[in-house]
Amino acid sequence: MSGEEFKQPVEQTGEEQQGARALTFALQVAYHGAPFCGFARQPGQLTVQGELEQALELLFRRPVQTVCAGRTDAGVHARGQWVSFEVEPGELRGRTERNLLRSLNALTHESMMVRALEERPAGFSARFDAKSREYHYHLCLEPTPPLFMRDFCWHLPHELDVDAMRKGAAHLIGEHDFKSFCMAVSAVGKPTCRNVQEISIFWEEVMGEPVLTIKVVGNAFLHSMVRTIVGTLVAVGRGQKDPDWVAQVLAARDRQAAGENAPAQGLVFWQVNY
Questions:
Q1: Active-site residue, from 73, 151, 244, 254
Q2: What is the mean pLDDT of the segment spanning 235-257?
Q3: Which residues contact 97 (CB under 8 A, 6 or more apart)?
């Protein structure tokens, strides 16, 4: 990140400045989801988008609209959310990338952090230019609750058949209609086909605490889709359902056919690939 001021057009007239093409920037944002009512702005509610747009409005003295790579629900965390917005060249006069980043972090909620600020090609959209999104869901299967991962996992003090979960997950790879894995109300009148490129399930250790991680990568996701996938795979892991049941759930195109919605605190929007 440069400490130099943003480059300005040389000796432009007022008319030229008005006709200058807007500059597009992208912010990489991380947040602890617990205090927020999701990403999307909501009147009278604390949201990530609301905090960002309020800070940008204070800095540029006008409303600034933002577009995110993927909306997250209340309580869901993000490690690598991306948000795009546009500014006029003249609005950057006297500012550096470093002080703009510092100002954004000073003006937004303590449970979020703007980690990077990057200029992108004109017209770049954090949402529409994304090739894939990656989510991680963490499960703790220890008899006692975790300490350091307490806010970032679903504590299930049970043994899970991980091989059975992997067999069940294989049915979800590829392009399918995921209506069974979407909150029913949000699916009304909307396309529900998505392409899931990867579901991998593996053990890892975070600050000395073992967690079972379910990594899901896809072109895009429906409302609560990843959490419903996790809840469905957990039912298989518990032995309540056969791995092939997952294929039946997919074919049903009915949210009632799938497993429970896994708790929000275990889900992290991990990264976006452009």
A1: 73
A2: 97
A3: 1, 2, 3, 6, 117
